[in-house]
Design a protein that fits this description.
Elements: H1 3-16, E1 24-25, H2 26-32, H3 39-48, E2 57-58, H4 68-80, E3 85-86, E4 89-90, H5 92-95
Parallel strand pairs: 1-2
Antiparallel strand pairs: 3-4
Helix pairs in contact: 2-3
The protein binds a DNA duplex (13 and 13 nucleotides) through helix 2, helix 3, strand 2 and helix 4.
DNA sequence: TCCGTGACGCGAT
DNA sequence: CATCGCGCCACGG
């Protein structure tokens, strides 16, 4: 079995779960995918996959991590969804999406 | 197979 | 608030 695919699949699922008008962070997505230290992996997945709500993923404190045109593009897309900023960062207190906790083997099944 | 490279995160300076 | 350094992880040459 290729564990890379399952990890990637969990990351993709977490990313896709972020609704319109909400945002999440690389680290939070990683945690939700049960890969708590794989924030950079999340970034790679975002960069190498198509059809994802990529603009809804920002840095830990609401910062857009892209550069140049991409930076502008992400900001415009977020604002178009109603996401507000304070300076150059998203107001996380208002828009951060609370991701579902990763599924653990339940004690009482 | 080894090594450099990121759309990262966080504490320290 | 701006930078730096170090830890993390999978990928590509």
């Amino acid at each position: 079995m290729d564990t890379r695919l399952t990890s990637r699949a969990r990351i993709l699922r977490a990313i896709r779960s972020v609704p319109r008008g909400k945002v999440s962070t690389y680290g939070a997505i990683a945690k939700a995918a049960r890969l708590p230290r794989a924030a950079r992996l999340v970034a790679r997945v975002l960069h190498t996959s198509l059809g994802l709500p990529w603009h809804r993923i920002v840095g830990a404190s609401g910062q857009i991590k892209l550069r140049g045109d991409q930076f502008i593009e992400q900001r415009l897309r977020l604002e178009a969804e109603g996401v507000t900023f304070r300076g150059s960062r998203v107001r996380m207190a208002l828009h951060e999406f609370q991701l579902a906790k990763p599924r653990l083997p339940t004690p009482s099944s």
